[in-house]
Amino acid sequence: MPESVSRRGAIASIVATAGVAATGGALLTGGLNGAASGHAGASDAATPATPSPAGLHGVHQPGIATRQQHYAMFAAFDLQTANLPTAKIATNLQQLMTRWTTVAQRLMLGDPPGPIPGNRPDAPAGSGVADGLNPASLTLTFGLGPEVFDLIGQKERRPAHLRPLPAFSTDRLEPAWSGGHLIAQICADDPQVVSHAFRSLRGQAPGLARLRWSQQGFLGTFGGSTPRNLLGQKDGTSNPKPGTPEFDQAVWAADGEPEWFTGGSYLVFRKIRLDLPKWDLAAARDQDLVIGRRRDTGAPLSGGSEFTAVELGKKGPDGRPAIPADAHVALVRAIPMLRRSYNYDYAVQGITEPIIVEHGHANQDDGHLHEHHSGNSHGSYDSGVLFCAYVRDPEAFIRAQRKLAGSDRLNAFVKHTGSAVFAIPPGSQPGEHLAAALSPSG
After folding, report:
1. Domain residues for 225?
2. What is the pLDDT of residue 220?
3. For 436, which DSSP code?
4. Total domains in the fold of the chain
5. Positive or negative torsion for Cα 424, 140, 18, 32
6. What is the number of other CB atoms lying within 10 angstroms of the CB of residue 342?
7. How confident is the model over 381-421, as pLDDT tens digits?
8. pLDDT at 367
9. Where does the record place Low complexity bias (predicted)?
């Protein structure tokens, strides 16, 4: 490492804080089947914000089991590799992670991030963007992409399930919003705190890494109820609850991983664009059949309340299945993952690929949406879901997405435009940064 051991001893780690995660979708909505002791319910979503983390040392990084905040930014970076030998790339990764760990430690405690390397001597010590603001429950979470371990010459230390996601038949991916060597997930209850943290991390990267893409998201405040996504659906009904066996089995790395990855996880990121003009013109009954839940209450169409278990075999008054076999919840239930997603709404984006908007009407006999073309007046509107799933093994997501790509009714309203997967290292020990185990002496 470029820093001495004494320098590393001054760097605190970034680790998990206690909390709950009550938002995110099954892939878009709450589709898993949670028992009362195993899901994070509405009361968890209303947990008051705390001004700073309860602690900075532990087994896991923050931003996973932590209560989900209202604002987020996801920023992917690529290491500088042009004309550099493997050893230099590895050194640069260590230097960047040391800087980021230091900055994250300071910001999460509400302290200034410190100087920007290479800045003019007369430049301000900081941007001043967050002066007078408390940390607003800020968490920073970092991950490593599949290519990193080849780039630094440590294939043997690559987490066992870290590999690029396969192509799915419904993907319409934009390269500008996909992939990445490194990810920084920045979450807080104040969007200005999020922006400040992003600028602070980005300021440490020149010469070591470059920004590849960034996406910003938000969640509403629902007074104790499960938040809703931009489809109007309750989102996160059946997430596993931190501290339970269900959570641990879904999220944290299992046996068979490199020893250094104990306490780690995997993050699957997908940018999912919603055709909201088309959705808004669909009949209420059709919307419910697409998802398999009632929009107003979040209850499954098989009956009960929001947290009632889904019954796929139950018949409706017409003798047909109450929840169609191709409804969203029917295809993704029982897939173990923690969904920590955010809404996004970028309004009209002239550079994006237009969506051909087809407004439709429902055939009352079969409940399917039959469409007719009505123009492209909303074709550049970019809004949807920043889908984030923390999983023990990305194969859980891959299984779910293959099923969805094959027959999900929701496919008529969504387009997957961004995709990435990262290994999320465990929390580091005092005096070490998050990638210290990947140093030549790690």
Report:
1. 5-438
2. 84
3. G
4. 1
5. negative
6. 26
7. 899 999 999 999 999 999 999 999 999 999 999 999 999 99
8. 41
9. 37-55
